[in-house]
């Protein structure tokens, strides 16, 4: 099933090339990027979702700045921060609720993976900034992402008429929009959804 999501980068290559220069600027010159309002790979309030339906297998991959889900991007050191990270992780561990999949589709979670520097799963790409933080240069490049990857087995995939993301917006109100790339039997589409228009058709 991974082949479906692996196909997405090739399908979206022109978009990726267009954003590559912007992302490069963002990484090296955050202030310059904000000054010109450029869209970058890491934009607070914006999440990304790759979705693929192939036969009875539905695969969803959600990527979001930690700020959208947790409310901060630094390592959780206080009890309150640790509790918030644990609560968000628990919410992400219930994808049937989060993605509001119709019961008629008979979807069950086959696999799920959650990754984030905040979860302690892997080092952050910006770990070198911890030294900067100690020197008083806090939050210069402190960008943490949360990645959630789910694979579902659906006994009646024909019942998957729409993908409703309203619960994601309700659960994580700092998320303002989600850029969705969807591959389904009816073709491929790229759409941007918001809380006011949170559903898209398979």
What does this protein structure show overall?
This protein is α+β, with helices and mostly antiparallel strands and 202 residues long. The chain has a domain at 42-121 and 141-201. 33% of the residues lie in helices and 29% in strands. The protein contains eight helices and eight strands, in the order αααββαααβαββαβββ. It has helices spanning 2-11, 13-28, 30-36, 66-69, 79-92, 95-98, 129-134, 166-171; strands at residues 46-54, 57-65, 107-115, 145-154, 162-164, 177-184, 187-194, 199-201. The strands form two sheets. It has a six-stranded mixed beta sheet. A hairpin with a 2-residue loop joins strand 1 (46-54) and strand 2 (57-65). Helix 2 (13-28) crosses helix 3. The longest helix has 16 residues, at 13-28. Residues 8-40 and 123-141 have low confidence and may be disordered.
How would the blueprint of this fold be written?
Layout: H1 2-11, H2 13-28, H3 30-36, E1 46-54, E2 57-65, H4 66-69, H5 79-92, H6 95-98, E3 107-115, H7 129-134, E4 145-154, E5 162-164, H8 166-171, E6 177-184, E7 187-194, E8 199-201
Parallel strand pairs: 1-6
Antiparallel strand pairs: 1-2, 2-4, 3-4, 5-8, 6-7
Helix pairs in contact: 2-3
Sum up the structure in keywords.
two-stranded antiparallel ribbon, single chain, alpha+beta, 202 residues, 8 strands
């Amino acid at each position: 099933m991974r082949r479906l999501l692996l196909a997405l980068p090739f399908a979206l290559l022109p978009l990726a090339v267009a954003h590559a220069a912007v992302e490069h600027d963002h990484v090296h010159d955050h202030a310059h990027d904000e000054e010109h309002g450029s869209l970058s790979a890491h934009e607070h309030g914006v999440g990304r979702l790759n979705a693929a339906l192939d036969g009875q297998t539905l695969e969803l991959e959600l990527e979001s700045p930690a700020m959208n889900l947790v409310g901060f991007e630094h390592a959780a050191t206080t009890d309150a921060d640790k509790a918030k990270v644990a609560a968000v992780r628990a919410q992400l561990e219930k994808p049937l609720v989060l993605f509001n999949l119709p019961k008629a589709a008979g979807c069950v979670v086959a696999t799920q993976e959650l990754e984030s520097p905040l979860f302690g799963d892997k080092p952050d790409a910006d770990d070198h900034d911890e030294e900067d933080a100690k020197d008083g240069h806090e939050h210069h490049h402190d960008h943490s992402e949360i990645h959630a990857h789910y694979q579902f087995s659906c006994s009646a995939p024909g019942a998957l008429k729409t993908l409703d993301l309203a619960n994601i917006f309700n659960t994580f109100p700092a998320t303002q929009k989600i850029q969705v790339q969807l591959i389904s039997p009816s073709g491929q589409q790229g759409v941007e959804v918001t809380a006011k228009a949170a559903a898209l058709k398979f």
